[in-house]
Amino acid sequence: MIHAYVRVCCTFYCQSYGAEGNRSMGVPGEDLAGVYSAKDFVGWYNGLPSCRELSPDLSCETAVVLGQGNVALDVARILLCPLDILKSTDITQLALEALAESKVRRVLIVGRRGPVQVACTIKELREMVNLPDTRPEMVAADFEGVQEAVNDLPRPRKRLTELMLKTAMEVPGEKEQERRKKASRVWGFRFFRSPVEVLSDPDHKRTAGIRLAINMLEGSGESARAVLTGEVEDVTCGLVISSIGYKSLPIDASVPFDSHRAIVPNIMGRVQQATGLYCSGWLKTGPTGVIATTMNNSFDTARSVVEDMDSRRLDVSAGKPGSQSISALLDERGVKPVLFSDWEKIDALETRRGEAIGKPREKLLTVEEMLLEARK
Ligand code: NAP
């Protein structure tokens, strides 16, 4: 349908709707109360209308975050961050109130591979290490052989691994020792562990722990693979947040989609077998990279469009109705689009509401409220 519409109405069309889904663990117990996807948890504290009702149960002491990417570290930090710091961010008031009552004091960030393979960046790790009122709790055995390997690592990975080694293995200076002694909250990486089953309480109602398979590594460096040893370990926890990556979803049967890689198959943003269709963002590359990576990737797609216009791969000579026909169709169907100027009204209201309570913004949490403001 989309593709047919592109042919009639516009010369080209670029899809950039991101990665709305998440990879699932595929283990028993995943549906128990107390298990959340990072996508939903992040959506909840960031004020995504669809996650407003999540109301995560934060009544346990230990939380396990599965995955060791930047999202996992974001989640761990939110769970442990002192309220005074959170209060001056744009976190929703709803999340702030729930976190004020939270009993979570220990967060374990679990990865299937080793310290040399963590997916987070040094910036995020540094923020975790420096988070006030927390101290690290690592397992020395996980770092066996890492010191010896560190000098051969590529530079960004080397600096990240050095920070991890320092945090896990070095005896800190007096000031840092004092800070750690006073800390009321604990975080730590757990390596070489894959989720096997979320364990339930005796009533089979909610999460009581997680069974982890113990892995060893096959190969070395970033491409090393986790291989099961056959041993397992149970960790007691009341909250499990699965942060093993996001996933794009197909939007329309007429647009090619690679279900295995969860991307729109493309070459430099040109959707394969669909002239006139382009893609950018996580839909194009999969859910990797920081904002700058995604931005540069989108510039590449724009470059492909310009090249195709110049080389006449795209026929720009034929006049097409473009947005006019789309507006007419929306009108006919009674759909009122939200324009940039409408969004600016929502932005202004959120900013005003935030200012009143010392925050950069206080977000509107329902689409109804947003539309009400937009249409004023
Ligand atoms: P990610 O960086 O891809 O990390 C995913 C983590 O999940 C990895 O540790 C991965 O381990 C693990 N994992 C994947 N499949 C697994 C499985 N089946 N079982 C166990 N573990 C599994 O994803 P992300 O943290 O969701 O972040 C997505 C992107 O957004 C990243 O590029 C990230 O940098 C970016 N981001 C950036 C920021 C920031 O800059 N502040 C904040 C949020 C997100 P393996 O390595 O073994 O696969």
TrEMBL record:
GO MF annotation terms: oxidoreductase activity
EC number(s) stated in the UniProt entry for this protein: 1.18.1.6
Subcellular location: Mitochondrion
Pathway the protein takes part in: Steroid metabolism; cholesterol metabolism
Keyword Nucleotide-binding belongs to the record: no
Keywords of the record: Electron transport, FAD, Flavoprotein, Mitochondrion, NADP, Oxidoreductase, Transit peptide, Transport
Catalytic reactions on record: 2 reduced [adrenodoxin] + NADP(+) + H(+) = 2 oxidized [adrenodoxin] + NADPH
GO cellular component: mitochondrion
Keyword Magnesium: no
Coiled-coil intervals, chain numbering: none
UniProt binding sites for NADP(+): 68-71, 112-113, 124, 289
Binding site for FAD: 282, 289-291
Cofactor(s) of this protein: FAD
Family affiliation: Belongs to the ferredoxin--NADP reductase type 1 family.
Protein's recorded name: NADPH:adrenodoxin oxidoreductase, mitochondrial
Species for this entry: Xyrichtys novacula
